[in-house]
From TrEMBL:
Gene expressing this chain: galK
Site description Transition state stabilizer, residues in chain: 20
Top-level EC class as recorded in UniProt: transferase
Binding site for substrate: 26-29, 221
Protein name, per record: Galactokinase
Organism, as annotated: Curtobacterium caseinilyticum
A Pfam family matched in the record: GHMP_kinases_C
Amino acid sequence: MTFQQVYGYEPTVQYSAPGRVNLIGEHTDYNDGYVLPFAIDRRTVASIGQREDRLIRVASAFEPDAVHELSLDELDPSRMQGWSAYVFGIAWALREQAGADLSDKTGFDVFIDSDVPVGAGLSSSAAIECGVALAFTDLWELGLDRKALARVGQYSENHAVGAPTGIMDQSASLLGEQDAVVFLDCRTLDTAVVDLALEANGLEVLVIDTRVEHAHATGGYKARRDSCERGAAAMGVEALRDLSVDDLPRAQELLDDETFRRVRHVVTEDQRVLDTVRTLREQGPRAIGDLLVASHASMRDDFEISVPELDLAVETAMAHGAVGARMTGGGFGGAAIALVDREARGAIADAVTSAFASAGYREPTVFTVHAAQGARRD
Ligand code: ADP
Ligand code: MG
């Protein structure tokens, strides 16, 4: 399906924004810590035609035959249904969160098409939000910069869609650059683009989507957040970000064993993000393998958010020569990443697939991603 088939005319402009993979820094975002995602070469495209009235209409290849519409005079989350909230919510958040005056603006016809897999932990949601946010701010000439747009995307996802997510995904999707990672301080929202330089080093990132979606993912996420809050309160700090590895012996004395291990994951993970940034700058990507593997072990043993499928993916990739590997995303299922030599990619993918077959697991989806440019007008 195309824009032309839905609306009967050709679009005037096209914007696109990528999904993302988190290289390292898991469950650190809501602890005011550090994350290191990159935008990937899978994008969501928003084709747009400008209207003369106040209507926004949206359609998606994702749900053929449905066209949702909402007037700029009726913008309110209660009037947004299903996935259309990812588009209408941006217009609403531009007004509510960024203070844009939309009273004299006209609407759009929008058609969304995407090759970011939905629900695989690659943030198809940020891809749609960020492409639309860049398009609307451009076409309405609102003059908002990309950091402001990241906040708009997060606000929309939190309050129009209703998902309590951080700002990592939008930051990666808006600020990503080719063959680079986005270093984000989740407290200050300071960002820096750091060269990943995989191309020059003959490396690639393999995504191994286990296609496991655990029923207790939501409950598990909440329990981890609660543990982190408890740990921070007991240690007398605002957030776990304020602790360093030197504080861990004191934490061990003060906290029960489970809370201590949750805290230890977050504190050491923040340190691993900082170490990864430094290592990338000083030694290049071949030297970050141990940090990725240590991150996985910490999530498996201390934070207890891995599953046997993710552990098998990581172990098999490492046994077949990966430079490093770890689960990525919230855990309890989802995907692992492996940093691999370009020539070894096929052998490692095959080894993981057959290890899954031998274990009686569902066949994983394995594919390569490259660090790509963030949201843009195409
Ligand atoms: P993830 O971001 O990990 O892929 P989310 O649950 O956060 O998963 O976001 C997925 C949701 O985003 C989908 O259920 C849908 O509502 C919306 N979405 C993503 N891509 C599209 C698309 N191409 N067209 C319409 N809605 C989309
Ligand atoms: Mg998402």
